[in-house]
Specification:
The complex is a heterodimer of chains A (773) and B (191). With 773 residues, chain A is α+β, with helices and mostly antiparallel strands. Chain A has 29 helices and 13 strands. In chain A, the strands form 3 sheets. In chain A, strands 2, 3, 4, 5, 6 and 7 form a 6-stranded antiparallel beta sheet that branches. In chain A, helix 16 packs across helix 26, helix 21 packs across helix 22 and helix 26 runs antiparallel to helix 29. Chain B is α+β, with helices and mostly antiparallel strands and 191 residues long. In chain B, 18% of the residues lie in helices and 42% in strands. Chain B contains 4 helices and 11 strands; from the N terminus they run H-E-E-E-E-E-E-H-H-E-E-E-E-E-H. In chain B, strands 6-5-4-3-2-1-11-10-9-8-7 form an 11-stranded antiparallel beta sheet, sandwiched between helices. Classes of the chains: A alpha+beta (773), B alpha+beta (191).
Chain lengths: 773, 191
């Protein structure tokens, strides 16, 4: 057959070209991994994104460990031992326990020359109200025992306002305070000493293991020195724990899955050639799909490749179907090709149509999935119909014993019809409906990671002790120049303070705008020498003739203005420089991070305040990712309905209404039971469960088709069994994953496949099957 | 950090008991304070009472011209005037020393200060003079010298700060025993 041969050769040439294209393109191709790319219109604007990105980089590598003991000396010794042990660990840098000496002195020296322009919010309010309270406090402090006064001498800071400003700023760092040259806190009857370090990102498995071992050793040494509790916090701890869980899982699930697959194929075909040919199409489809995506798009999302290949792996049962013909008696490749042509074409067309429905979504990554899956399945189908008749020449028929067992199994299989089956179906659907009524939607990001409960608890305690780090939301402010930025930050902080949230880690807390410095200096001056006459009253109450005049002179002495440029250059800004993000175009952005004690729950209520300040916006990566997953879920639900309708329409067109209903029944039943099982098991309905349904649609409809066209052939029966079981073995085992999202995905597929598999033979058509034209 | 200096009073009072046996003991009494602050023309005079509780801390109560209490414990320095006690950030070198002295570790003093006795070792119960100069470290940056005198107990102390502030304190009516404390002071000591 020259045309067939030419087509087969053309297919081979196209495939070779795709393989070559892939080999050339893929290694150089930067894959898109940002989750925001999935839904472009939900992505925050560039400023918020850059802010979030900068923050993420800062946060990801940071480890903060609190070493605790009831006796402070033991806690300190333990922390020193812990830090000492960490210093030798590869992948960890900037290990710090001791704080460089004189940090407090440096801050005092830097800010003191600008003391009059620096007022805390409370003092600004008190001065506006006349300042009587401040006067009383100032007088009292004159008589305190030596050393209990403010940070600056009386003549420089008569009302103590600068000392309070400095103390407020020191408190922004959270519950840790500088003692003995370390950062310490007292809580729960223990003294906690902080040890911090930077963990290198993107470690391979061996490096990760080495670092974890180093951290364990450090804990052991700290315990040996008297520490009785060690609390770990930091993204790297969670990342490593998740990676360890994933590795265990990959090893377990991977070997279980591979073993099951091999066993299934061996039971079904027993010979290496058919076993190999059963697996080949999935690989072919992945190559073709990936090549098509890379041809059409310059930026490819990693999700498109990962999910696309899963789809191809699951939905592709054409090779299996073709090979199951070995159960229909002596092997005749030409006859098999003739009989298989119709069902294979319909199975391919319905799957491609179902996945093409993803093209309806305005989401590039999902369009890529659609193209990947459609092209992959199309290439598989073409490969199987064109090449398998040649590749399977001389294949042996299935052993008589095995075929006999399959035949007996088929004979015993219940048939649809009568009250009995209607009752079973009604029961199953009622069970599903009850389960679905319990379904809860949860788009939370937590579902994407396996969580170590002990680490979560330690992290929460660290946050409670230090008072910072629990919130994921923050504000980003942008402005054309630094002073405008500081003014905008101040406006935002004023609004936030008005809503009861005064503590924010922000550049303007350390460097007020020049306008505010001027206004604060004026307010201090007015309170001291204006109608309230605090200076004069201080003079007479303390019996210090001439005090007022001297204060006036010192306040009139020129003070250098405090500018962000000076601040950024000085070491005092070191812990806070991350808040200040200069942009390439000369504009500036800055972050306002929640200060101590500001809980995440309150942030959402504060978010609208950003609208009052130009250039300000609220960002919550975690919340916005969850919102995005929810949006994707709603869109995907629409696609499922649209795809399902298209598939039913095509089936009806090809098979007639009755057979179409019988062909669609297993997929419908499988979907219903899968959703019911999710509900009964308390697993959330989210994007990943729906992706599982989408995959199910592609594979379960094939089962129905195989049992319609040639429903009485043993090969169809066997193909459905092997295809369903291989899917369960390959992807359904994810139902045992420790990652909730994967668990939902795997469960939907496992339950759905199981139900479709068990029900498909019940709907088998009575005919032997004639090849459709 | 300056709050760290308040402990100097505790040091003086505690060391006044150094010669007695056993160490340390509860003391209470009255004081008058004259504080010369850099930039002010006249010294500021005040008076009040104190109570030293061995193992717990020191309550320093100014009664005139304005009322306020400073409570020093191993946990920090607290000021009680109106409302809730304010905690002042205290350097832990000072607090550690305070803790050691309160628990009777006399050698701790020599670790933090150069201790000299310009008038020689005192006779039992006789007059004594003790000059303390902080050893290099955070304390030395703020604080230059304590000069204390006493007999059976501390009688006077002069405290010099690097800022130039000079405080003279005279103790009177010092006697063993816990003295009377109000509720807030009691609570801070008990913590």
């Amino acid at each position: 057959m020259p045309i067939k041969r030419a087509l087969a050769l053309a297919w081979l040439a196209a495939f070779a070209a795709a393989l070559l294209w892939l080999a050339l393109r893929l290694p150089s191709e930067g894959l898109e991994t940002s989750i925001f790319e999935l839904v472009p219109w939900r992505a925050p604007n560039p400023a918020a994104r850059a802010g979030a990105e900068a923050l993420r980089r800062q946060v990801e590598g940071r480890l903060l460990v609190l070493v605790g003991a009831a006796d402070p000396a033991r806690a300190e010794a333990g922390a020193d031992a812990y830090a000492g042990a960490l210093r030798g660990v590869a992948g960890l840098s900037s290990v710090a326990c001791a704080v460089p000496g004189g940090a407090a002195g440096r801050a005092l020296a830097f800010y003191a020359s600008r003391a009059a322009g620096l007022l805390s919010r409370e003092d600004r309010d008190a001065l506006a109200g006349g300042g009587d309270g401040l006067l009383q406090a100032a007088l009292r402090s004159l008589y305190l025992p030596p050393g209990v006064g403010g940070s600056l001498g009386f003549s420089q800071d008569p009302l103590g306002s600068f000392s309070r400003w400095l103390a407020d700023n020191a408190a922004l760092a959270g519950g840790l305070e500088l003692r003995n040259g370390r950062l310490e806190a007292d809580s729960d009857g223990r003294t906690w000493v902080a040890v911090s370090a930077e963990a290198a990102p993107g470690l391979d498995e061996a490096a990760m293991r080495a670092m974890d071992a180093g951290l364990e050793r450090a804990s052991a040494e700290a315990r040996a020195r008297g520490a009785d509790l060690i609390l770990r916090s930091g993204f790297a701890f969670h990342e490593h724990a998740a990676a360890r869980a994933a590795m265990r899982e990959v090893a377990l699930v991977g070997s279980a899955s591979t073993g099951l697959l091999a066993l299934l194929l061996w039971v079904a075909f027993r010979r290496p050639r058919p076993m190999l040919l059963a697996l080949l199409p999935a690989a072919v489809g992945c190559v073709a799909g990936a090549a098509a995506v890379l041809l059409l798009w310059s930026r490819v999302h990693a999700i498109a490749l990962v999910f696309g290949s899963t789809v191809v792996g699951v939905a592709d049962d054409y090779g299996l179907y073709f090979l199951s013909g070995s159960y229909d008696g002596p092997w005749d490749p030409r006859r098999r090709a003739r009989l298989a042509r119709g069902p294979l074409a319909l199975a391919m067309a319905t799957s491609v149509l179902g996945y093409a429905a993803l093209l309806l979504l305005p989401i590039p990554a999902l369009k890529q999935v659609a193209v990947f899956a459609s092209v992959g399945l199309l290439a598989d189908w073409a490969g199987v119909t064109l090449w398998y008749p040649m590749l399977t020449r001389g294949l042996q028929a299935a052993p008589a014993g095995r075929a006999g067992a399959a035949r007996r199994l088929r004979r015993a299989w219940p048939r649809w019809g009568g009250w009995g089956s209607a009752c079973v179906a009604a029961l199953a659907l009622a069970w599903s409906a009850a389960g679905m009524a319990r379904l809860k939607v949860d788009d939370g990001v937590r579902l994407l990671y396996a969580h170590d409960a002990a680490l979560d608890q330690e992290q929460a305690r660290v946050q409670a002790i230090t008072g910072v780090g629990g919130a994921t939301g923050f504000f980003v402010v942008s402005a054309p120049d630094p002073q405008t930025l500081l003014r905008r930050e101040e406006a935002l902080r004023d609004a936030l303070a008005g809503s009861g949230a005064p503590l924010w880690q922000a550049a303007s807390a350390f460097v007020p705008s020049l306008d505010r410095q001027r206004a604060d200096r004026e307010a201090l001056r007015t309170a001291l020498f204006g109608p309230a006459a605090l200076a004069g009253r201080l003079e007479s109450a303390a019996g210090q003739p001439g005090l007022r005049r001297r204060l006036l002179r010192s306040l009139d002495a020129p003070e250098p203005a405090l500018t962000p440029e000076d601040w950024l250059k000085d070491p005092v800004s070191t812990p806070w420089r991350r808040l200040w993000l200069p942009q390439a175009d000369g504009s500036v952005e800055s972050l306002l991070l929640p200060g101590p004690g500001l809980a995440q729950e309150r942030l959402a209520a504060l978010a609208p305040l950003a609208a009052r300040v130009p250039g300000a916006q609220y960002v919550d990566q975690i919340e916005s990712v969850a919102g995005l997953l929810g949006e994707l879920r709603r869109l995907l639900a629409l696609v499922l309905v649209a795809g399902g309708a298209l598939v039913c329409g095509l089936l009806a067109l090809r098979l007639g209404w009755r057979a179409a209903a019988a062909a669609a029944a297993p997929a419908a039943l499988g979907s219903a039971l899968a959703l019911g099982a999710l509900g009964w098991l308390g697993l959330p309905l989210n994007l990943f469960a729906l992706l599982g349904l989408l995959l199910l649609l592609g594979t379960a409809v094939d089962f129905g088709i195989y049992m319609q066209d040639g429903g009485q052939r043993l090969s169809s029966f066997v193909a459905v069994h092997v295809a369903a079981l291989t899917n369960i073995a390959a992807v359904g085992v994810l139902a045992f994953s420790s990652t909730p999202a994967l668990r939902a995905f795997g469960l939907v597929l496992a339950v759905g496949c199981l139900a479709a598999w068990l029900s498909a033979p019940c709907f088998a058509s009575p005919d032997e099957g004639t090849p459709l034209a | 950090m300056r709050a760290a200096l308040a402990f100097a009073l505790g040091v003086v009072l505690l060391t006044s008991g150094l010669r007695a046996d056993p160490l340390p003991q509860d003391l209470h009494g009255r004081f008058s304070q004259s504080k010369a602050i850099a930039g002010l023309t006249r010294p500021l005079l005040s008076r009040g009472s104190f109570a030293l509780s061995a193992g717990k801390g020191l309550v320093w109560r100014t009664e005139a011209p304005l009322r306020s209490s400073v409570v020093l414990t191993a946990r920090g320095v607290f000021v009680l005037d109106q409302g809730a006690p304010r905690r002042l950030g205290a350097g832990s070198e000072a607090l550690a020393l305070m803790r050691e002295l309160l628990s009777g570790d006399a050698a701790a003093l020599a670790r933090a200060f150069t201790v000299s006795r310009p008038e020689g070792p005192p006779a039992a119960g006789g007059p004594w003079r003790l000059v303390l100069e902080p050893r290099p470290g955070p304390l030395a940056g703020i604080f230059s010298r304590i000069d204390a005198r006493g007999g059976a107990f501390a009688e006077s102390a002069e405290l010099l700060e690097r800022s130039g502030d000079r405080t003279n304190i005279r103790f009177s009516g010092v006697q063993p025993g816990a003295g009377t404390l109000d509720k807030a002071e009691e609570a801070l000591l008990a913590d």
